[in-house]
Amino acid sequence: MERLQKVIAHAGIASRRKAEELILEGKVSVNGSVVKELGVKVGASDKISVNGVPLEREQPVYFLLYKPRGVISSVSDDKGRKVVTDYFTHIEQRIYPVGRLDYDTSGALLLTNDGEFANLLMHPSSEIEKVYVAKIKGIPSKEKLKSLERGIRLEDGKTAPAKVKLMSFDKKAETAIVELIIHEGRNRQVRRMFEAIGHPVLKLKRERYGTLTLHGLNAGEAKELTPHEVKQLRVLAMKKKNK
Ligand code: URA
Q1: How far apart are CA 55 and CA 232, in angstroms?
Q2: Is 190 in the pocket of ligand 1 (CB under 6 A)?
Q3: Please, what are the domains in the chain?
Q4: pLDDT tens digits, residue range 10-40?
Q5: Atom of ligand 1 minimally distant from the CA of 104
Q6: Sequence-separated (6 or more) residues with CB below 8 Å from residue 62
Q7: Does ligand 1 have an atom closer than 6 angstroms to the CB of 101?
Q8: Residue 100 CA, closest ligand 1 atom number
Q9: Is the CB of 191 under 6 A from ligand 1?
Q10: Where does the record place the RNA-binding S4 domain (predicted)?
Q11: Active-site choice (78, 102, 114, 170)
């Protein structure tokens, strides 16, 4: 469900502020009834009219971007830095990222204009699995990797159990490559987890988001998801949610 003024703004007929005014003026109806207050939320099947004209909802679209490092997971940046939506200037729909990857993190990032879908995936109970591959400083002991696996205390609480695999290490350079699979999505979580065991992250990439892998994509490339891929993700998120 999304706020009515947001849905009107997304349809491209008014700014969010103007949409709020239209609602307060009694010019907006949902399923035939005039709505005059601002808290109302609507779903994809609700019929909205503005000034008696049915709202054309944007077609929902879904993209997987292989986000390069050095790009912000946002739709705009006041410092003029590159943002993820710069890769979609040919798309007329107003899409935005589902969650975020740090500026220096590369990898799988989903973008859509479907707010309900985004909320479903980002909800903590959806438990979409995310696979990260980190190059870290030093070579971690088995015990340290076990502690990541069991869950580690961070300043915002203990992390949920994770899957951890030491992929390789370089004794000379004193670095290691570790795969970490988590379903939480706290801010800078992977970097903070490795920092907590004394092995800071040097490089980080998200290899998989739920069922979506980077297979066939180079950094900076995107692909539109098929209806089947969208459905798979939805099923995955719902399954965990109902557990
Ligand atoms: N964890 C991080 O630390 N950074 C990311 O970009 C994603 C997960």
Answers
A1: 29
A2: yes
A3: 2-54 (3.10.290.10), 62-125+211-241 (3.30.70.580), 130-209 (3.30.70.1560)
A4: 787 888 899 999 999 999 999 999 999 998 9
A5: 6
A6: 110, 111, 112, 114, 117, 224, 225, 229, 230
A7: yes
A8: 6
A9: yes
A10: 2-63
A11: 102
